[in-house]
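fyi for ur records
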Amino acid sequence: MMGLSLIRLTISLALLSPAISQNLASDPGRSGAALEIVHLYNDLYPQTIAVSATGRKFSNYARSLDPTNIAYTVAELVTNTTERAYPSAEINSPPGGAINYTTNPPTGANYPNYFIGVQSVVIDPADRLWILDTGRAATPEGVNVPSTPGGPKLIGIDLTNDSIFRTILFPPTVAYSDSYLNDIRFDLRPAVTASGKGIAYITDSSQEGRNGIVIVDLGTGESWRHLDNTPEVRAERGFLPFIWGEVVYSLPPPGQIINYAGNFGADGIALSADGETLFWSAVGSRTLYSIPTERLRDRSPTSEILAEASVVSRGQKGISDGLETDSNGLIYAGNFEDNAISVYNPANGTVQVFARDPTIAWTDSLAVAADGYVYFTENQLWRTAAYYPGTDRRVKPYVLYRAKCPGNGTKVNLQ
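which gave:
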């Protein structure tokens, strides 16, 4: 009888006139800020976007997320469909490749003067490009090899002459061999460090190891960790995303078992407009957290106790990868499950939809530029072979969008 009832219901719905059907409520799919396509990636697989004050644009192509990202791991966007290795093809091509197969197991190459596996590119308030190298890369089978000292590093480039002015190597006590240094933000105000050269904050989103926040004195080159593997920087147990109507499970390399896809720890990171608060979120969580930056800069004997006691939950904002701030203090975040970019307003604690579009899904990174636009990349990460059903379902081109910041918002200028 149940089967007959379902058949009758199906027939009844099919016989509804178009006029009646058109009155049914449905999801409009698009709302909020107008999106502009800035660049189409038809070649390698991109992650982050950086936009200089003069409009130059740069992206990275992580070798740990796609083993075919061989030709380069950092590029400048030349036209709206082409890129070229930056600052040179040579520095993007370590001798013998990004993986050292003479070790057992294979490891990331330890060249301090070459890019191994870059995960983030960011323009600082002084309009310099910084390149964050994880020191890791994936084998053709998808195994992300551990790093070795010399691989994990932070490289600063002067855009007036495209030359490297600073290389900071991370010691293995800060960048563990299974760390994944993910994203970075800068505060160049002289008063925040004794060196007077500013500071950087980095997320470690490792899927295999400990998560946390890495802090770097840009003057001395010293680095240290805080919130090391505390619950707020880790993915939530059993976290399961839903994107484009699909349940997303992780499909690890051969020999391992299917797991929850939301196993990236602290990933997106953003500084408040005044530099006094750091915001972050794990991909494997819908919660936004914050901490006073003075707690992260503190290296006293009880600094970790004070840091852990200072973490604040700002509530839920959806599933995000990258985060970004504008001069009005708004925190931009992807919202995978709602095909949207959302904004969190620290002034009143609310979250609002900024832009919504069916083509928005995995917003990997966002960057607010001096032109008053927020730029963001869409790269279909959950459709790579690393996720169930284990086949590469990405469809090129990947997309770089931009949208006008509300209230004349622009890039934060902490210097």
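Helices lie at 2-14, 18-21, 293-297, 303-309. thats all i got for now
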